[in-house]
Design a protein that fits this description.
single chain; mainly alpha; about 75% helix; globular
Amino acid sequence: MADEAPAAPRRQLTLFDSTSIIVGIIIGSSVYVTAPQIAKSVPDTLSFLGVWLAGGAFALVGSLCYAELATALPADGGDYVYLSRAYGRPVGFLFAWCELWLVRPGAIGSMAFVFAQYADHIAPLGRLSPVIYAAGSVILLTGTNLLGVATGKWTQNALTLIKLAGLATVIVIGFSVAAPADMKLTADKASEPNWGFAMILILYAYGGWNDMAFVSAEVRNPNKNILRALLLGTITVTAIYLLVNGAFIHALGLSGVRTADAVAADVTRLGLGELGDKVVSALVAISTLGAINGMTFTGARIYYALGKQHALFRAFGVWSAQRDAPVPALLLQGAITAILIVAFGWSEGTLSREGFERMAKFTFPAFWLFLSLVSLAVPVLRWREPELPRPCRTPFVGATSLAFFAGTAFMLRESYNWALKGGEPQALWTLAAFAAGVIALAVDRLLRGAAAP
């Protein structure tokens, strides 16, 4: 009797599921946390709303590139697959290595620290509360995804719908109250605009729009639904961000947004009194859980794909038929993220804000480096593999890819400068992780050579 084929992902994500993943990952906590800092970095109200619109335009341009890649190569792993095909296996390996040790745990961890900050506001657990809540959220949602794709996607859909309902509440309240008389929009001027820092925060707020590519092998009718989900997700988020920030401006004025410690709470307090503070804390906590769950769901597919191709990670390239999930990859991702959360959060009372900033600086340079390579993968693959079927072709591919690359290159420079600012070591740790990845790649080649007949 022939051996049964190993278990593999199945196409069970609908258009709604796919869009929910995108919206749920993008809208985490950033719109609440970064709005005051962005307002301080731009000269006036029009610029404030303009940079939010620019972030959406960048995500839309990127989505057009990703639609071609994801429909031409509809396999789990997303960027790992595209980089391997466009530039060779070593580049794909280094991408997955950095995702494993830098980008994914940094992204999940920074969001977990924001969840911890707001959960602690609702139910404080003492001095170690930030680390307990942050690590606990990662462990809980990793466990949820270990129950299978169906449980993971239902959790994502529910969290996304709840956060959208909460955002609608903030928007309605914000546009229902009048701006204070001493905060006239025409009087708001930033003394020293910092466009680079503003765009770092803006594109962090839009981060995750490309994560659906990691699960493209599980999307039903991928030739149509991948493009639809990318466009619907990015356009929906852009509209929501403009409405939310417009509500902030209407309620508080730009000066009020700049000086707010918790901008959404300040707005809802105007309409709901002291209850508004608790409502917003719960809303942010739910929003961050949705982002953590989405990134956990999609990220594990990278290491599953890596294990299918590279001997060093073969143990993680297994799809559990019983659980209908990449169980070893999920466990690996959850363990590394939880360990790094404890390591980054253990600093002078384990303040969550410190943990968030340290993990963000740890993450950004590597993220933008590889995204810049993905931005050029569309024209590179058209040149290297012209016969490859492309159900969704990027319009004006040269101009679109160049615009995408220009944005990623700018962000790579700005994020690395930010990470180095103040002599902090996070960016240097990124270089050390790259060096370790090169060594790991050499070991993988030796293992592959030893296994060859």
